[in-house]
Structures are given as structure tokens and as C-alpha cells.
Specification:
The chain has 2 helices and 5 strands. It is of the alpha+beta class. It has a single domain, classed as OB fold (Dihydrolipoamide Acetyltransferase, E2P) (Beta Barrel), CATH 2.40.50. A 5-stranded mixed β-barrel has the order 1-2-3-5-4. A hairpin with a 6-residue loop joins strand 4 and strand 5.
Length: 95
């Protein structure tokens, strides 16, 4: 297999973004995620993402915790399987 160039969006730590794993689907555009800081949060899938991207249990996503309510967050990115494999090879996923 050749070394193909994969462009992967990484969390912007300055904006509070972090990796999370989808644990369960709650319905109405909400999911329960397990974040890399060890907390479980209720995350909201924005409408523009809900219409274009299908999120399933076990997916790796980037979330941004709400500034005024830390146990809630917004999903801003979902990784595809090749991107997750690349992140694991580089040692960036710490779950």
C-alpha cells in the first residue's frame, strides 16, 4: 500500500475543541458522547450537519463544550474510517 496523503482536520485546542466517541443516539438530533477528558456529555448535532452527515454509535467526532453548561456540547466534525485509522497510527486518539 502506498503512503497516500490524507488531510485530516484536528481539534483546535484554543477554541476548546476535543475528540469524543459516540456512545448512544438519544434522538431529536442529540447524542451521548464520551470525551477525551473523561467526561460524558450530551451533544447536539447542528441542523446543517444532520442533513448531510450520518452519525452512528462508535464514530469519532470533534465536539465543542458549551461555555455556560459544561455537560453539553456541539458536534462540529465526524471522521471517516480512513481518517480514524490515520489518527490511530499517529497516536492522536487517547481513549
Amino acid at each position: 500500500m502506498t503512503d497516500e496523503v490524507i488531510r485530516v482536520r484536528l481539534p483546535d485546542r484554543n477554541k476548546g475543541e476535543m475528540f469524543a466517541v459516540v456512545e448512544s443516539m438519544m434522538g431529536a438530533g442529540h447524542i451521548k458522547v464520551k470525551c477525551e477528558d473523561g467526561k460524558e456529555r450530551l451533544a447536539r448535532i447542528p441542523g446543517k450537519m444532520r442533513k448531510k452527515i450520518w452519525i452512528r454509535e462508535g464514530d469519532i467526532v470533534i465536539i465543542v463544550p458549551w461555555s455556560f453548561q459544561d455537560e453539553r456540547a456541539d458536534v462540529i466534525w465526524r471522521y471517516t474510517n480512513p481518517q480514524v485509522e490515520w489518527l490511530e497510527r499517529k497516536g492522536l486518539l487517547k481513549f
